[in-house]
Design goal:
Layout lengths: L3 H10 L3 H13 L2 E7 L4 E2 L2 E3 L2 E7 L2 H9 L6 E7 L3 H10 L4 E4 L6 E4 L22 H16 L4 H13 L2 E5 L7 E3 L5 E6 L2 H7 L6 E5 L1 H10 L3 E4 L7 E3 L1 H11 L20 E2 L6 H11 L5 E9 L8 E8 L5 H11 L8 E5 L14 E2 L1
Parallel strand pairs: 4-6, 10-12, 16-17
Antiparallel strand pairs: 1-2, 1-4, 1-5, 3-4, 6-7, 8-10, 8-11, 9-10, 12-13, 14-15, 15-16, 15-18
Helix pairs in contact: 1-2, 5-6, 6-9, 10-11
Length: 371
């Protein structure tokens, strides 16, 4: 019987649906799968691959060890998952905002969407405050930012993406018996209210049952910081907890409404492109043409910019495509653009973001596409 790695090799030799199904079935049948786990955050290691939050699984622990050596800025450890526990692992990945699985990177990275292995649960019949999974996208974006902060390579694109997702996310606010927001007292005398993007994270923090939970939206968090002068501690007690003050919440609101004043996060200040981002030289006209052909079929994309961005552990810069949307972003378009244009990228990876993530930095740069 062929091993998982042999089936992956067969898939790359002839990438048919039959070959992909054989790999997926072999992955489900592994006695033990080895997951890359980030000790700093207490979550599975996450990367943005082709615009999707991805985790990394391995059939052989030696492959994971080699992968971890490429990411020395973080301590990645082997989390072995026995076959009977794999459904719980997949559910945890979905709850934590993962969208994609990459198997046996970096040599032969076979990728599949999490939806290919798990049936996404439908909790629409339950009140929001009773749903066991509340806001996977917000949870995943916070985990990713925390991991990048621990690794010392967070940037403004990531930070502003988190703020945008939080602006649109639902939350669980910890409240006391009398209905007032629960809070912690900080050493400087200020207060910190507790909000969560995930019910399990709330339950884990509230093991003693001191607090109740109230379903709220972003406006309620803004009101707490404006009216009561407290900060917000998001996902308290988790390795990826995130403190939010009035300035950051105001920045999230401004960013979501297309207003970009002076409140820009640390790595995105000024009018020049941030460190590591540049205009491609020579200009990749074939890539721009392929992206344009696909964008012309999309009514909700107003403009697109093309840059290069340097990433650690990459020999060549990646291409960074920033889209200006007329409405809410559609992450599924990023995958469509990748499929249409990857062959023109000269072997480089493609990354996608919103033009707003680069804020005022685009004022002196022309888009390659305008609808």
């Amino acid at each position: 019987m062929a091993s998982l790695q042999e089936l992956i090799d067969l898939y790359f030799a002839d990438p048919t649906e039959t070959a992909a199904a054989a790999v997926n079935n072999a992955l489900r049948g592994l006695d033990t799968v080895h997951a890359a786990f980030c000790q700093a955050t207490g979550h599975y290691y996450m990367e943005q691959e082709h615009g999707m939050r991805s985790c990394f699984l391995f059939s052989d622990p030696d492959l994971l060890t080699r992968f971890a050596a490429l990411h020395k800025e973080l301590v990645l450890v082997d989390l072995p998952i026995q076959n009977r526990l794999q459904p719980a692992m997949l559910a945890d990945l979905y709850r934590s905002g993962f969208e994609r699985i990459v198997v046996n990177a970096p040599d032969t990275p076979y990728a599949l969407e999490l939806r290919d292995l798990i049936r996404v649960p439908d909790y629409s019949g339950l009140p929001l405050e009773q749903q066991p999974i509340l806001s996977p996208e917000a949870t995943g974006s916070v985990i990713y930012l925390a991991q990048k902060l621990h690794g010392g390579n967070a940037d403004g694109v990531i930070e502003l993406d988190v703020l945008r997702r939080l602006y649109h996310a639902p939350f669980l606010l910890a409240v006391q018996e009398n209905g007032s927001a629960a809070s912690l007292s900080l050493p400087d005398g200020s207060r910190c209210c507790l909000a969560f993007t995930d019910p399990q994270l709330f339950d884990r923090y509230n093991r003693d049952g001191h607090y109740h939970k109230r379903f709220v939206y972003f406006d309620a968090l803004r009101a707490l910081t404006d009216e009561e002068g407290c900060h917000i501690l998001l996902n308290a007690g988790d390795g990826a907890q995130l403190p939010l003050d009035r300035t950051l919440l105001k920045a999230a609101e401004d960013h979501a409404q297309g207003l970009f004043g002076d409140v820009i996060l640390h790595s995105m200040k000024g009018d020049s492109l941030p460190a590591g981002i540049d205009v491609p030289t020579p200009w990749p006209q074939a890539l721009a043409d392929a992206l344009t052909a696909q964008l012309q079929t999309q009514k909700d994309v107003e403009a697109a910019y093309l840059f290069t961005i340097r990433r650690e552990h990459s020999a060549a810069p990646h291409f960074l495509i920033a889209l200006r949307w007329s409405g809410l972003p559609r992450p599924e378009l990023y995958e469509q653009l990748y499929d249409a244009a990857a062959q023109y990228a000269s072997g480089r990876d493609l990354e996608f973001t919103e033009d707003a993530a680069l804020s005022g930095l685009l004022r002196t740069h022309e888009p390659f596409y305008v609808s």
